[in-house]
Write a structure and sequence with these properties.
Strand content: 5-15%
Radius of gyration: 24 Å
Distance between the termini: 51 Å
Number of domains: 2
Shape: elongated
Helix content: 40-55%
Order of helices and strands: HHHHHEE
Structural class: mainly alpha
Number of strands: 2
Largest sheet: 2 strands, antiparallel
Length: 130
C-alpha cells in the first residue's frame, strides 16, 4: 500500500468496528465509530453527549436487557435444624439486596418467596421484571 493509498483510505474509507478486533458490544462500536466520523457534524457535538453515549453503551442493565444475559448469584444458606432465625435473617438480607437491585433498575429474572417465620418452605417463581 502506498502513502497515497493510505491517505485516500484515511479520508474516505470507514474504519473497522472495534468489535472486529476485540470482543465488544455493537453498542460500543457505535460510540467509537461516531467519534471517528469523517464529517465533523456527524460526530458527538459535545463531550457531554459523548459521555452519555458511552455510559449507555456500557450500562450493564441495558446490555442485560438487550442480550438476555446478566450476572448469576447463587446463595446457599445452611443452618442447624433449630436455627430458623439465622435462615430468616439471611432471607431478609437477600430480599433487601433484591429490592436495592430493582430500585437501581436491574431486572431480576428469579424471585424467591415464602420466607419468614411462618413459611413452611421456599417457593421459587420464574419470571422477568423490567
Amino acid at each position: 500500500m502506498t502513502p497515497a493509498d493510505e491517505t485516500r483510505m484515511h479520508l474516505g474509507a470507514p474504519p473497522r468496528p472495534p468489535s472486529e478486533v476485540v470482543p465488544l458490544s455493537p453498542r460500543f462500536d457505535a460510540v467509537v465509530l461516531r467519534c471517528l466520523e469523517k464529517e465533523p457534524a456527524a460526530r458527538f457535538p459535545t463531550v457531554d453527549a459523548f459521555l452519555a453515549g458511552y455510559r449507555e453503551a456500557v450500562d450493564p442493565r441495558a446490555l442485560a436487557r438487550e442480550h438476555g444475559a446478566g450476572i448469576g448469584i447463587l446463595v446457599r444458606a445452611e443452618a442447624e435444624s433449630d436455627d430458623e432465625d439465622a435462615i430468616v435473617e439471611a432471607a431478609l438480607a437477600l430480599e433487601g439486596a433484591g429490592a436495592a437491585l430493582r430500585e437501581a433498575g436491574y431486572p431480576l429474572a428469579l424471585e424467591l418467596g415464602g420466607w419468614g417465620p411462618a413459611a413452611e418452605g421456599v417457593t421459587v417463581t420464574a419470571g422477568t421484571e423490567g
